[in-house]
Amino acid sequence: MTIVRQPTRAGVRDAAAKIAAILPPTPIFVQEIRGVPVAFKAESLQPVGAFKIRGAWHRLTALDVEARARGVVAFSSGNHAQGVAWAAKRLGMAATIVMPADAPRAKVEGTLALGAEVVSYDRATESREQIAARLAEARGATLVPSFDDAWIIEGQGSAGIEAGAQMEAAGLGAPTMVVVPCGGGGLAAGIVLALPNAAITVVEPEGWDDMRRSLEASWILPVGDTPPPTACDALMTKQVSSLTFDILSRRDATGIAVGEQEIAAAQRWAAEKLRLVVEPGGAVGLAAVLTGKITPVAGMLVVLSGGNVDIDGYARALAAR
Amino acid sequence: MTIVRQPTRAGVRDAAAKIAAILPPTPIFVQEIRGVPVAFKAESLQPVGAFKIRGAWHRLTALDVEARARGVVAFSSGNHAQGVAWAAKRLGMAATIVMPADAPRAKVEGTLALGAEVVSYDRATESREQIAARLAEARGATLVPSFDDAWIIEGQGSAGIEAGAQMEAAGLGAPTMVVVPCGGGGLAAGIVLALPNAAITVVEPEGWDDMRRSLEASWILPVGDTPPPTACDALMTKQVSSLTFDILSRRDATGIAVGEQEIAAAQRWAAEKLRLVVEPGGAVGLAAVLTGKITPVAGMLVVLSGGNVDIDGYARALAAR
């Protein structure tokens, strides 16, 4: 029996120190919503446009010399892809990324520009897990999961360490409640470990709210067989993992689902009030607060997790009303 | 004869220290253009969405107690308005802002939200200078010019001090060439004082390139009688001042003009590559580099001076191609 390594708060702090050594903190911005100042963590401003760079760096730097020489394989619609490619390039490692054929063009181009090899697959008929596992085995490469991994969770949690320190420095006090976009739950689970005194609410697109339903049921439930279309390519995860679910469940995290029009309205708000380009999946937490599904409270931190958009779809989201 | 106070490098350094005490530095981002890493200073991420907060803070904090009690008056299409309103609010002062009736809605709303009184005028038939001067006289308030003032120029220059330090910390070395959007030239003149070893290129919209023509002629020339329409509301200055012109001219600054489509293309690039919402007037420097009108060189710094957009116009700019 394999003992799965569990992510720890010490690991998150270690990840935060490693990341602080190579990347400046992403800024936080404060805007009032219904009269309450809310802090926004702009992970959209990471070099690859998403928080995924954190987990990738923590994971890849933990590999030994032999493993580094054999390279890494990952599967992702784009943000994890770019995070892994960025970290691999910086460490001089080979990276192969399995990406769906319908991934946003900007994310595919960004991954290629970072020197990674991209292998395409059909989201409807093929299993990215199988393709990636086969590639990893053939090359002796390390498979880097996008969320079901202790290192990845710890790395993503560094965003919480950073934001907590920034909020205290800005006189806002420690975060009391964190609102986090959720695909597989890696970022949310990492933030649970990073901020032991904060309440956590995860937000997903309607129909893809399996973490919300799982937390309510106290049991992991997958998304339905025919989930609706969503602009949130980064959050189209069919099932969360016990690693992420258990951490969120033990903290009594709650889940919220938001609709596509609510997400577009949040993207417009972010452009107008924060002057930030936020991708649909990065804007779901903001959408939950703007709609009133989550009531703003003092000490609220909302994570804007990514900003990689295909510009035509983004222009349509801004124009829609 | 009135002796006009001249802005100085010491004044810029003083302004930078005052601003560092109340605002975190706006981030710089690095992206390659034609293979050359170019640094971007995201002044669009200031609390009011533009660098104007700098000059306003430096000017208003220099007023004595009596002057502070009588308040300030300014005229502006929006960014200087919000900068003055922000500084006045923070200092507990009254602010009256004269704004054109066609100013972007977001800028008017932002100014009102900061507690300022807004007085509207018709850009075509009325003189904002006269309206503002009359208001200032009637109230005993201090008129805060948007660029023709030593304090304002010194304050804006603090962006150059910050960016220079950030580029050196990031291993990019001191700025060798700075590309700056230009309305009245306050930001560009301040940066000349801040960075004595950098070449300066100012960029304006076509037909509003009076600083470019003035620098070529070595004499201040106004814009033509019927300048073309431009999306760059922040850069629609009819004539620069001798304070700003002289500083730029002595540094042998050069000017470049860019077209409206080139500006929209730069806004798209900033959204896609930097995940930043940049207003038309804030994107002209980037436009000049992307079009090749300015060749990227090592140590290049491009200032993205503002990010306040009306969302409908912004969506159209992103959709156009």
Structure description:
- Chain A contains 13 helices and ten strands.
- By secondary structure, chain A is an alpha/beta fold.
- Chain A has two domains: 9-50 and 150-319, Rossmann fold (3-Layer(aba) Sandwich); 53-144, Rossmann fold (3-Layer(aba) Sandwich).
- The mean pLDDT of chain A is 95.
Task: Offer a few descriptive terms.
homodimer; 321 residues; Rossmann fold; 2 domains; six-stranded mixed beta sheet; 10 strands; globular
Summarize the structure.
The structure is a homodimer of 321-residue chains. Chain A has 321 residues and is of the alpha/beta class.
Strand proportion of chain A, as a percent range, falls in 15-25%
- Please state the structural category of chain A: alpha/beta
- Taking the alpha carbons of the first and last residues of chain A, their distance comes to 54 Å
- Annotation field: number of helices of chain A: 13
Biggest sheet descriptor of chain A = 6 strands, mixed
Q: Provide the CATH topology of the largest domain in chain A.
A: Rossmann fold
Number of structurally distinct domains of chain A: 2
Could you name the ranges of chain A where pLDDT drops below 50 across 5 or more consecutive residues? none
Largest interface, by Cβ-Cβ below 8 angstroms: which chains and how many residues each?
A-B, 24 and 24 residues
Mean pLDDT of chain A: 95
Mind telling me the CATH class of the largest domain in chain A? Alpha Beta
Radius of gyration of chain A: 18 Å
Annotation, overall tally of beta strands of chain A: 10
| Helix share, percent of chain A | 40-55%
CATH architecture of the largest domain in chain A: 3-Layer(aba) Sandwich
The ordered H/E elements of chain A are HEEHHEHEHEHEHEHEHHEHHEH
Spatial ordering of strands, largest sheet of chain A: 1-2-10-7-8-9
List the quaternary state of the chains.
Answer: homodimer
Shape field of chain A: globular
